[in-house]
Prior knowledge:
It is a single chain. Among the domains are: 11-69, no CATH class; 89-303 and 401-433, Citrate Synthase, domain 1 (Orthogonal Bundle). By secondary structure, it is mainly α. The protein contains 18 helices and five strands. Helix 2 (109-118) packs parallel to helix 18 (412-433) and helix 9 packs antiparallel against helix 14 (347-363). The strands form two sheets. Strands 3-4-5 form a three-stranded antiparallel sheet. The chain has helices at residues 100-106, 109-118, 124-135, 142-149, 157-168, 177-180, 189-214, 228-237, 249-261, 269-278, 284-295, 303-314, 320-328, 347-363, 368-380, 383-387, 394-404, 412-433; strands at residues 19-23, 30-34, 84-87, 92-95, 98-99. S-citryldethia Coenzyme A is lined by residues 265, 268-269, 299-301, 303, 327, 333-340, 388, 390, 393-395. This is Citrate synthase-like protein.
Amino acid sequence: MAIASASSVTSSVVKPRNTITVVDNRTGKSIEIEITNNSIPATAFSQLKAPYADGERTENDTPYGLRILDPSFINTAMIQSEITYIDGNKGFLMHRGYPIEQLAEKSSYLETAYLLIYGELPSKSQSDLWTWEIMHHTFVADDLQQMIRQMRYDSHPMSVFISAFAAMSAFAPEANPSLQGNDIYINNKGLMNKQIVRILGKATTVAAMAYRIRINRPFTPPRSDLSYTENLLYMMDHMAEPNSYRPDPRLAKALDILFILHADHEMNCSTAAMVHVGSSLVDPYSCVAAASAALYGPLHGGANEAVIRMLTKIGSVENVPVFLDAVKQKKELLFGFGHRVYRETDPRSKVIREVADMVFEVCGREPLIEVAIALKDAALKDEYFTSRKLFPNVDYWSGLIYKAMGFPLDFFPVLFVVPRVSGYLAHWKQQLESGKNKISRPRQVYVGKSRRDYIPVEARVERTITGQNGLTEIPHYISKRRLTKI
Ligand code: SDX
């Protein structure tokens, strides 16, 4: 048999095209979908329609087109963004093209916030105006201060922060699209910029108010002659010292670096909430309250607080193996480890580790760091964690720094949300200015009961109530001194 020479062999391989072809085996129909930026539009799949299969539930909506099911957005993008890029496999993070390590070393938090929101590093005059505007929008309305003052002294500071921003929307009616019209931010950059500087300026004041409630002290008026983080520490700690009091500049600098590291992280749970809520065109104060509520959770921004509770519970280096066994038996969670995107160490946690040494020099070494190092080293040698790509994330070390600086445990998430407000605002602005804002309204796949007719109460049978299908017993506080039981 003649063997074709290499030159005579014609390639049977089709020239690669930047598309995918999907064949619906229910109908034999195929569609070719364009790939853009390594992604495809989920709406393309709605072209694939089929008749109901024999006995199929009509609730499957099969003839109306195929849906994509992706609970928790494991592999679904809700936005195209120019703000932040993360390479989770390489442990790489950049904002508007600048690597986080360079920003942490060379930038300041307010400069990074400007970069996130406006897309470029500010010139000297832009930076001066930006700083001036923010530091002259730090006051919180007196009525709002009085409202917040009424909260319980032991309120979790995140509850105070969320409440303050939700209420703050009532103090800017001129900035409320529900009152002034849908397009107020589209045609009025000055109005949008004013809310941006107001929210950034007041974020630290509200945070300090939440702290002052916890220690039952009067609120300290902000100062415009201090840096962003100096002013936060001043409002938190100033008591009877003369007004010349200033926080330790080394700690203000450490906090500024931590703020840079926490400023943005693309579509995390809380920033997605900001964009989702913002898509309804509600005012930005309400959006920040909603996003802050998402960050409050222990799986998200509440993790830095949970890490310290975990390390305290472990107590000593000797107890690390027992704790890790409990984690592997899924009886415990290793807070500060793991990440939806990073399959390598979170680059922020590497920088934070250096900031920790800076802070320990000033405040003394935090004893729990020995447990944290032993726990991290043991986990990174254990196949259970390495096989699941579980590495320290940004929250693993930050709590130790905050603890060394003497912040109360439940204040830690506030130190995360304050800087993250700039990331929220950057994504909110990007969404409104994209010209493509549509209200976010995810699809669902209904797997509940099919259509059925109403049953009058006298015809209903008694059911044994479990947690799922009815109102179970609700515990009540009944005073022992009460004559009759409820
Ligand atoms: C932040 O999204 C962001 O960018 C967030 C953030 C930001 O800047 O905005 O980076 C800030 O929130 C950092 C994450 C802080 N949270 C924690 O440290 C809480 C502990 N971490 C986990 O809850 C968890 O890792 C998440 C929530 C962070 C990520 O969870 P995923 O992506 O949903 O992963 P998963 O739950 O599907 O876990 C995969 C496997 C599971 O085991 P198997 O079912 O395969 O047996 O890994 C296990 C999980 O049980 N696992 C953990 C674990 N994290 C995941 N097991 C023990 N301890 C952990 N921390």
